[in-house]
Design goal:
By secondary structure, the protein is α+β, with helices and mostly antiparallel strands. Among the domains are: about 140 residues, PAS domain (Beta-Lactamase); about 100 residues, PAS domain (Beta-Lactamase); about 160 residues, Heat Shock Protein 90. Helix content is about 55%, strand content about 20%. The longest helix has about 130 residues. The chain is flat. The chain starts with a helix and ends with a strand.
Amino acid sequence: MTNLDSKNNNLLKWIIFLPVIGVLITSFSLTNIYINSINKTYEHEVIEMEKSYTKKVKSEIKNRINNISNTIDKNYNFQSNESKQIVKHFVNLGHSIVNTIYENNKHKTKEQIYKIINTQMKDIRFFDNKSGYFFIYNAKNAISILLPAAPSLVGKSLINVKDKNDKNLFYSYQKVMEKDGQGFDTWYWNKPNSIIKSKKIGYVKIFEPLNIVIGTAIYEEDIQHTIAKNVVKIIEELKFQDDGYIFVIDKKGTSLSHKNQKIVGIPLNKLSSTTQKNVTYIRDKLKGKKETFIEYIQDKKIFDENRISKKISYIQYNKNLEWIIGTGLYTDNLNKQIKEKKLALEQRLNDNINLIILISVILSLIIVLILMSISKKIKNTILYYSRELNNKNSELKLLNTNLEEKINKQVSILREKDLFFNQQAKLISMGEMLGNIAHQWRQPLSAICTVASGIQMRKKMDIITDEQIHNDLNNIINSTEVLSQTIDDFREFHSNKKEKVEFEIQSAIDKVLNLILANLKSKDIAVHKEIQNIKCTSYKNELVQVLLNIINNAKDALVEVEEDKYIFINTKQKNNNLLIEIYDNAGGIKGDIIQRVFEPYFTTKFKSKGTGIGLYMSKNIMENSLKGTMSVENYNFIYEENSYTGAKFMLVLPI
């Protein structure tokens, strides 16, 4: 027995000390290899870090300019369209004035009416700079009736008048008015007190009772000037964490925006020779290009507090405003930041080496201590596992006892999650609805503006009657009722009241289309309905939300379609269920992802356009709240002898 114990003790010693020796040798070898490897990795990381950091800085300043350029283009397009609508509005107003004069003087000859029109309208001016006026001529022989810019031509034919590009204005206007008797046209004319020809954007409209044409126009240069002021103001308000700034140069080389306000608006030939050289260099680099990176030495006179430094800049040409927009980073700042990164990387390397050595020593000591304690733990192993077994049995009993509670808690968590998704979907839907309301309101607001302007103008001219006021006020009231109805529909859609009601499916679909139809029309999307008007009892608002989500998805898909765009809505009764089919001609959904469209946060749109919860919540509402089903498939169909493919959503709802 003693010999056996002795052998066991020797065996335990070998079991303990051999691994200890092996651990120490292995730890020393691996630590040494790792330190050599990490030094080589450090040298490579420094090189890659310099390249990566420089690339990152260039990418940041490029993105900065791209964002600003996008803002400029959007502002330009918006202001241009808005200015065209203002020109059209004033022509409609002039048309209304002429109509009033005509109605009040029907008993007089045309020549007498022409003189009254000239007398009452020749002094009318509009636009911010008061450069706007009405011109009127006979549509048949081009005899001028009203021309405030050249009164001497009144009574004379303008049939041979041409713009600065040799374009005959009379025949051009006739072509514009061929279809609807009105329309936009452009021509080139000298601005007052200037020999430079400038583009004008005009609108003409025929007044049929007298067969005369009423028109006005605005200089595109005035529109660009307004846009430029707004954009420069936006740029000057921008603040960046790296103390960077945006500079803007016009086609003449004059600075329109710069951190140093002393050079803003100063002609190029009045600046220092170094600055002139830099501006010329920037302009030359962009010849034949839209964008590029450049390097140059900044003039120390630009910023007195900075020494002369090399600068890396990204510049971009904006075609609409003929601007050069740029920003950059001084290389001494860049080199300083790279040096700081290198020092941080070196410090991290040293810290890692020290940490590895420390971990290696500590780990070795821990392993030694563990192995030393193995002999004692072997004796306690059986007792330990016995205790563990008892503990596990106790835990199992406790788990069984609390299982129902945990399940209830998990169910509660899942319900809260669904509530969160539902609320998030509601908020997203609300954002889309606000856009729809904006479209719905545009027409009645425009009508109110036109009627109010007409009342004001006729009042100033003292040619308004009580009957006209009554009719105009009725028109305003009708337009406000449209606005009010839109708000009522929006309020009812987003009501938190949840109760089953009996309704006709036609009313639910009409409610959806009332909220979104203007938005669809603005994107040239036609809606075709084939409705079997079935009554059902369910949660109407929740069904409206599902229908709105599906139609919005179809709308977003159709935006990318260049041909005719359609959304089809069909309803019919199938057994004791209501079947709703909604499909489009947007090309369908890719086969490898079509079964994933109902997953939360899965979207086929760009992240800036979609969240991926609309269809998920729609399916959740259909199955859990409305007790129905929702599915999707790609659908091939023929409409008006043309073949199309699109995504078809099928809703089955108990009646």
